[in-house]
């Protein structure tokens, strides 16, 4: 009897606590039962969040992918989430992402498995690794730029994806992709990426089914490449172990090993190619920035005064060299601020907490909006303007809400790799080529990564050919 009274008391208390849990929720709408507002999100993508932010402010509720969800933006607000990992929140993505990327993957793992794998990946992507490969990154970029300028025009977003898929495959996984393999893989990675955030319905015609098929094909392709390759097992870089992969016997390629290759190339090439496209686009539409960038490259020996000279006579890019170009660094930084490749990150709430006086209830999903944080930064004059100068000699730069790589325990381990590769790309691009967009005011999409809506073509000119 006493036990019964105690249980009743406990239930009453829990009910009262739960009531508190749902008081003072942020503004917003929850849509229809079960589906919530998922369909509207799948139709409007990034615009869905932009519009809600406009209507409700930096903290609003919605219902996505079967979960009551709160989307949060603003520097201090998202710092609370980023640095609350494993205390008040934990990384947790919608079911479709978990199933497609794989629950065993680095990005989806938690606890000690996550910590150990991440440590391994960061050890692999060391400064020594970057120093060792910078020359080869540059050569690959130069070779690609020569091809771009030899064509009457190129489809820029597709070309950026080929380049950075090849670069990631070569330097992270030690696999050389043929032209045809790159072409087929690009299509399947596109299907995989475009349908990651969707309803997990595995029926023909649904995005989830398309993404599952794409991943299956990518794994099959890598299996054939690995089997036909000249490599012995131990020539595969240890980085794959960070993704949970083991390859004990080359004849019997482990499923996890293939999952790991697909994940690593997805993590690295999708983001970098979107950023590289944004650099081409933003420089073409901001000639004053382009002039300043060229001046810096010229002052540092990357562009010779006599423009008839061969590129080989100019300074080679090096790891140290590209760290000493503040304006180039500012261009890359400002690109990632204005067009961040990843717009937001998902967390499960472990403990009820508050943001701006609103309750963020336990067991709900909370998403920190990187894109909206960058777009509405109160510390910036005209945050929607592309202005690399805001990073130069600015003592208050540390106050800028800048999170393209997330942060805290789940912060991006590929940050240094990405920054180095993007600086090399910018230097090689601007010192060798001029270019025009062949569409005025091209429409852009911002989800899953920034890109042109249509197949934007760009005409590249080799500088020595026009001077
Ligand atoms: C411009 C390029 C890149 C951008 C903007 C970017 C952005 C991000 C962001 C925002 C996150 C945090 C996600 C979260 O908090 O849930 C993240 C995580 C991650 N990124 Fe990157 N990334 C880039 C390049 C790379 C590269 C080159 C690699 C691999 C070599 C990589 C591997 C990863 C991995 C494995 C995670 C998961 C980390 C974890 O869960 O602890 N990324 N990235």
Automatic annotation (TrEMBL):
Pfam families: p450. PROSITE patterns: CYTOCHROME_P450. InterPro entries: Cyt_P450, Cyt_P450_CS, Cyt_P450_E_grp-IV, Cyt_P450_sf. Keywords: Heme, Iron, Metal-binding, Monooxygenase, Oxidoreductase. Belongs to the cytochrome P450 family. This is Cytochrome P450. The lineage of its organism: Eukaryota, Metazoa, Spiralia, Lophotrochozoa, Mollusca.
């Amino acid at each position: 009897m006493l036990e019964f009274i105690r249980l009743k008391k406990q239930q009453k208390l829990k009910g009262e606590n739960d009531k508190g849990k749902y008081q003072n929720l942020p503004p917003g709408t929850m849509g229809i039962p079960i589906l919530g507002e998922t369909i509207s999100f799948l139709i409007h993508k990034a615009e869905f969040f932009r519009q809600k932010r406009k209507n409700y402010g930096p903290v609003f509720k919605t219902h996505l992918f079967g979960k009551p969800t709160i989307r949060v933006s603003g520097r201090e607000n998202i710092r609370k989430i980023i640095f609350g990992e494993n205390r008040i929140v934990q990384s947790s993505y919608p079911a479709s992402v978990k199933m497609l990327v794989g629950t065993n993957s680095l990005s989806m793992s938690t606890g000690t498995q996550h910590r150990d794998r991440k440590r391994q990946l960061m050890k692999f992507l060391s400064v020594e690794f970057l120093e060792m490969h910078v020359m080869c990154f540059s050569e690959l970029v130069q070779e690609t730029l020569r091809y771009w300028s030899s064509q009457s025009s190129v489809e820029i977003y597709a070309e950026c994806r080929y380049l950075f898929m090849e670069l990631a495959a070569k330097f992270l996984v030690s696999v050389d992709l043929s032209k045809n393999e790159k072409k087929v893989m690009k299509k399947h990675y596109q299907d995989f990426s475009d349908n990651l955030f969707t309803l997990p319905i595995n029926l023909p015609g649904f995005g989830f089914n398309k993404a599952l098929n794409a991943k299956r094909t990518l794994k099959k392709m890598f299996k054939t490449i690995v089997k036909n390759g000249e490599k012995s097992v131990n020539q595969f870089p240890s980085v794959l172990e960070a993704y949970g992969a083991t390859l004990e016997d080359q004849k019997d390629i482990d499923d996890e090993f293939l999952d790991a290759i697909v994940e690593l190339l997805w993590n690295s090439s999708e983001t970098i190619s979107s950023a590289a496209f944004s650099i081409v686009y933003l420089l073409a539409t901001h000639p004053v920035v382009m002039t300043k960038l060229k001046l810096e490259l010229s002052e540092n020996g990357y562009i010779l005064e006599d423009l008839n000279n061969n590129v080989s006579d100019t300074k080679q890019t090096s790891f140290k060299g590209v760290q000493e170009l503040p304006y180039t660094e500012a261009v890359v930084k400002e690109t990632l601020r204005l067009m961040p490749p990843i717009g937001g990150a998902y967390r499960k709430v472990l403990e009820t907490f508050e943001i701006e006086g609103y309750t963020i209830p336990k067991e709900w999903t909370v998403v920190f909006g990187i894109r909206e944080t960058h777009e509405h930064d109160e510390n910036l004059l005209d945050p929607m303007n592309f202005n690399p100068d805001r990073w130069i000699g600015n003592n208050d730069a540390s106050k800028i809400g800048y999170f393209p790589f997330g942060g805290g325990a789940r912060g991006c381990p590929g940050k240094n790799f990405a920054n180095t590769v993007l600086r090399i790309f910018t230097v090689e691009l601007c010192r060798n080529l001029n270019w025009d967009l062949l569409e005025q005011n091209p429409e852009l999409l911002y989800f899953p990564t920034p890109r042109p809506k249509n197949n934007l073509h760009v005409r590249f000119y080799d500088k020595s050919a026009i001077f």
